[in-house]
Hints:
Layout (H helix, E strand, L loop, with lengths): L4 E3 L5 E4 L4 E6 L2 E6 L2 H15 L1
Antiparallel strand pairs: 1-2, 2-3, 3-4
Amino acid sequence: MSHTREFSKYEGVAWDEPNNKWVARWNGSHLGLYDEEMEAAIAVQELKDKTA
Protein backbone atom coordinates (compact mmCIF):
# COMPACT_ATOMS: atom_id res chain seq x y z
CA MET A 1 0.00 0.00 0.00
CA SER A 2 1.41 3.36 -1.03
CA HIS A 3 1.10 6.21 1.46
CA THR A 4 1.56 9.43 -0.47
CA ARG A 5 1.98 12.69 1.40
CA GLU A 6 2.16 16.10 -0.19
CA PHE A 7 3.19 18.95 2.07
CA SER A 8 1.15 22.07 2.49
CA LYS A 9 2.36 25.65 2.54
CA TYR A 10 1.53 25.50 6.27
CA GLU A 11 4.04 24.06 8.71
CA GLY A 12 2.92 20.73 10.18
CA VAL A 13 0.24 20.10 7.54
CA ALA A 14 0.31 17.51 4.77
CA TRP A 15 -2.15 15.86 2.36
CA ASP A 16 -2.85 12.24 3.34
CA GLU A 17 -3.87 10.62 0.07
CA PRO A 18 -5.14 7.26 1.42
CA ASN A 19 -7.63 9.15 3.61
CA ASN A 20 -8.20 12.05 1.20
CA LYS A 21 -7.75 14.44 4.10
CA TRP A 22 -5.29 16.98 5.41
CA VAL A 23 -3.31 15.70 8.37
CA ALA A 24 -2.01 17.95 11.14
CA ARG A 25 1.10 16.94 13.10
CA TRP A 26 3.35 18.83 15.46
CA ASN A 27 6.36 17.65 17.50
CA GLY A 28 5.43 14.00 16.99
CA SER A 29 1.78 14.54 17.89
CA HIS A 30 -0.95 13.57 15.44
CA LEU A 31 -3.61 16.26 15.76
CA GLY A 32 -6.16 14.79 13.40
CA LEU A 33 -7.44 14.58 9.85
CA TYR A 34 -9.26 17.53 8.30
CA ASP A 35 -11.29 18.17 5.16
CA GLU A 36 -9.83 21.65 4.78
CA GLU A 37 -6.16 22.58 4.71
CA MET A 38 -6.81 25.71 6.79
CA GLU A 39 -8.55 23.68 9.53
CA ALA A 40 -5.42 21.55 9.87
CA ALA A 41 -3.22 24.66 9.94
CA ILE A 42 -5.35 26.17 12.71
CA ALA A 43 -5.03 22.97 14.78
CA VAL A 44 -1.24 23.14 14.47
CA GLN A 45 -1.16 26.84 15.35
CA GLU A 46 -3.36 26.34 18.40
CA LEU A 47 -1.02 23.65 19.72
CA LYS A 48 2.02 25.82 18.99
CA ASP A 49 0.41 28.71 20.89
CA LYS A 50 -0.32 26.43 23.90
CA THR A 51 3.24 25.16 24.07
CA ALA A 52 4.95 28.51 23.48
